[in-house]
Backbone:
């Protein structure tokens, strides 16, 4: 998506809200959850991924990005001792999503690998109130006239309109609710990675696709405003910079620009740490910056953990 999130908003009939929703912010700000006590573990997670996990002078992104993700997820799982319901989660990889909808007179489909998907036995409660949902009727979606909003989308022949929440899940799968999608942009060459704006657009499209497929599985294919909105979160990272997103599907009536809109909260470009000094910096035979130094940003870690806890605490 060349225009990024703006185009994804039109395709998904979505209103953007900057920052994280109050429900997630409240988890971060509540000292009872003990997020601050895990900051030292998070620092060690960064050190392990960036400084200790390789014999090379500087680890490659394709190596340290997934290692950092696994380290952070391990810290998140430690919270299950305090909140046992966190054990009712399952992490699935290489799952495919398919969701089809009509926008104005255009048939659209999002289909493909939806990152690493964390599923839950229970859905995330709606983060916007009924009043906030109804207020979206007044929101005017941005258009790209005279450019078509589908200008850079791939045109294909659709022989079957699929709405599938994941080909790796069978009937009766207990972890049936999509919770959070994780996208790792770990390519070592910059041109092979999504730029942050395009990554956020991808995150929005796949969060929407998972929510729409789930809504249709629960409520059928008839377009309608949902009594119980579907919430799906998304986290994207290149191993240093993080993108956080909470998407709420309020309606499956997507043809017209009128009426209730969907909602997305985005917190962009949050750095977990500043440049990691893998090798010492030497000037005139004097070490000016020793190896092992990095500027840790605890708030970014707290946001990652708060999204993991959301829907449980």
Residues:
């Amino acid at each position: 998506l060349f225009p990024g999130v703006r185009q994804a908003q039109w395709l998904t009939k979505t209103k953007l809200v900057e920052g994280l929703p109050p429900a997630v912010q409240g988890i971060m700000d509540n000292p009872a959850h003990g997020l601050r006590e895990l900051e030292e573990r998070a620092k060690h997670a960064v050190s392990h991924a960036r400084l200790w996990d390789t014999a090379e002078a500087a680890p490659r992104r394709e190596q340290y990005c997934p290692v950092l993700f696994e380290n952070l997820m391990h810290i998140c799982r430690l919270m299950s001792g305090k909140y046992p319901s966190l054990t009712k989660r399952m992490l699935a990889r290489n799952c495919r999503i398919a969701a089809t909808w009509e926008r104005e007179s255009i048939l659209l489909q999002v289909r493909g690998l939806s990152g690493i998907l964390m599923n839950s036995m229970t859905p995330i409660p709606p983060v916007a109130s009924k009043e906030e949902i109804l207020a979206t009727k007044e929101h005017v979606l941005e258009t790209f006239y005279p450019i078509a909003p589908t200008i850079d989308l791939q045109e294909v022949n659709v022989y079957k309109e699929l709405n599938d929440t994941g080909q790796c899940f069978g009937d009766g799968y207990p972890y049936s609710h999509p919770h959070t999608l994780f996208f790792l942009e770990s390519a070592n060459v910059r041109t092979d990675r999504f730029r942050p704006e395009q990554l956020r657009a991808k995150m929005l499209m796949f969060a929407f696709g998972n929510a729409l497929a789930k809504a249709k599985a629960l409520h059928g294919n008839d377009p309608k405003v949902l009594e119980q909105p579907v919430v799906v979160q998304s986290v994207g990272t290149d191993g240093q910079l993080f993108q956080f997103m909470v998407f709420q599907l309020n309606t499956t009536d997507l043809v017209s620009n009128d009426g209730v809109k969907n909602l997305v909260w985005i917190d962009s470009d949050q750095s977990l740490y500043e440049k990691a000094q893998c090798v010492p910096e030497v000037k005139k035979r004097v070490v000016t910056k020793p190896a092992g130094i990095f500027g840790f940003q605890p708030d970014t870690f707290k946001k990652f953990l708060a999204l993991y806890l959301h829907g449980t605490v």
In short: The longest strand covers residues 225-237.
